[in-house]
Prior knowledge:
Blueprint: E1 6-11, E2 18-23, E3 29-33, H1 34-38, H2 46-68, E4 75-87, E5 90-103, H3 109-122, H4 124-129, E6 134-141
Parallel strand pairs: 5-6
Antiparallel strand pairs: 1-2, 2-3, 4-5
Helix pairs in contact: 2-3
Amino acid sequence: MPIRTASARWSGNLTEGNGTIKTGKGGYEGNYSFKSRFEEGEGTNPEELIGAAHAGCFSMAFSKGLADAGFTPTSVETVAKVHLDKGDAGFGVTRIDLETVGTVPGIDEGTFAKIAEGAKENCPISRLLSPGAEITLSAKLA
């Protein structure tokens, strides 16, 4: 399997500095700063990128689970809400709320929910993050 890379560059001190984050293949490059991470400033932040990775991984795993069960999804759309909270040890990602809507012809609500839960438990990014953060799921059939 290939090894995926990403990089970041930071200039200056924590609160007034700034940086860039980019993926190895050039699919994404964005600015980030203290304000974009801990306030409401422009740019991205590591937590948004974790959310994007998790939403993408979950959507693919869910699509595979549906196909393995004999259902071909028309679409799977997922939002990941990453909670960065301050605790006794400092800041940490404490919870990720996955919200997915799937358009899947011929499936019932129960089967849809069961396959979605399996994808949440088994996608590689969920498995990576679940020991340190609670992962919740809201799955709706369109």
